[in-house]
Amino acid sequence: MMSIVEFFRNLPKKHCSNCGNVIQEQADCYGNICDDCDHPAR
């Protein structure tokens, strides 16, 4: 059986649904849009 740490390390990186760039995930982040695409000036 795989350890929980190994499981989370093997998850694929999260990508922005708009531009496709890899999102720098945070512990409490459930969004699927990167900071650049979600910027209020855009």
UniProtKB/TrEMBL annotation:
It comes from Halobacillus locisalis. This is YhfH family protein. It holds the Pfam family YhfH. InterPro entries: YhfH-like (IPR025432). The lineage of its organism: Bacteria, Bacillati, Bacillota, Bacilli, Bacillales.
